[in-house]
Amino acid sequence: MASERGQSEDYSGPLKRLLLGVLLLCLLGLFLVWRIDSPRVERFRAQVVDRVVPPMDWAMAPVTGAVKVLRDFQSYQRMYQQNQDLRRELQQMKAWKEAALQLEQENARLLDLNNVQLDPRLTYVTGVVMADSGSPFRQSVLINVGARDGIMEGWAAMDGLGLVGRISGLGQNTARVILLTDTSSRIPVAVQPSGQRALLIGDNSIAPLLDFVEAPDQVRPGDRVLTSGDGGVFPAGLVVGQVFVDPGGRMRLRIAADYERLEFLRVLRSFVHEQIDDPGHLIVPPVDESAAEETAEAGNG
Q1: Is the pTM of this model over 0.70?
Q2: E-only strand ranges, 90-223
Q3: Which residues make beta-bridge pairs with 225?
Q4: Angle of helix 39-52 relative to helix 2-35, nearest 10 degrees?
Q5: Beta partners for 157?
Q6: SS3 label, residue 64
Q7: Which tens digit of pLDDT belongs to each residue from 45-102?
Q8: What are φ and ψ of residue 222, in 5° steps?
């Protein structure tokens, strides 16, 4: 058994070397043939390609498929990266859009303030609303102008649409505006076109009451309401709102000012009225002495 195994090993070694040498010679010959630039060899190469390559398509199919999958995966990676970039850009665009909308609204408010038609004698100071302290018991806002800007108690405050309230509470750099809807608000108004005088009374609702109307039968829903200027509380002619009737039959006011978006307020400087502090003296007409003597004698007689 040992001798047979040794003999087989003796034959297998040279046989392997022989096959390796033949394979190398074949490859060398194939290389040489493939490199020879001859018309006959070229025709031979073309025939070999025609015979061998088409039947080998089935063998190349997995390789071709793998290459396509690899390319598709690379394309997917590029698309995913582009999608992430687009998402980031979209978020940035949304932020810019929000900023643009805020600037547009702010610009609209300022334009509204500039378009309000006021008495040429009236001057004003524009302030920014800093805080809203609205509550069930108090309706007011805080603005960033105060005594340093010449603001005084009782002056009217307007937005771009109509009257908002009056100054009630004054600091050096800030002022508090009591809204028309506050329960402490009482404003004399005039209803147009009838000219009826009335009193606008706040009740902490969005639509204050219109009370003490001179002739209620002459007031109609939709009539415009302006400040009357009575009592020197506000300048006359400021737009306040429109009349409507609530389900209970009471007349209320639909306020012209936009209380939902109070950003800028215009504080109107009231007219400077001359104040009379000295009551003066009673002026008595001169008395005729002769007439007085005759009257006295007639009385004695």
Answers
A1: no
A2: 123-132, 140-143, 156-158, 163-170, 175-179, 186-192, 196-201, 209-211
A3: 191, 241
A4: 120
A5: 165, 267
A6: helix
A7: 677 667 666 655 666 667 777 778 888 888 888 888 888 888 888 878 877 777 776 6
A8: 100, -10
Greatest pairwise CA separation for the chain in angstroms: 194
Query: What is the C-alpha separation between 61 and 70, in angstroms, rounded?
Result: 14
Distance between CA atoms of residues 157 and 234, nearest Å: 10
| Residue type (1 letter), 125 | V
The CA distance from 290 to 300, in Å, is 15
What is the CA 239 to chain-centroid distance, rounded?
A: 26
C-alpha closest to that of 234 among 188, 184, 196: 188
**The token pair that represents 258 in the structure block:** 């936009």
Give the torsion sign (CA, 60, 66, 71, 72): positive
The full DSSP string for 207-246 is S-EEES-S-GGG--TT-EEEE--GGGSS-TT-EEEEEEE-
Residue 221 corresponds to which tokens in the numbers above?
């829903």
Cα 185 from Cα 167, distance rounded (Å): 11
Q: Spell out the residues 6+ positions from residue 252 whose beta carbon is closer than 8 angstroms to its own.
A: 207, 208, 209, 210, 243, 244, 245, 246
257 vs 64: CA distance, rounded Å = 73
Per-residue pLDDT tens over the stretch 226-268? 998 887 778 888 889 999 998 888 999 999 888 888 888 888 8
How far apart CA 20 and CA 22 sit, in angstroms, is 5
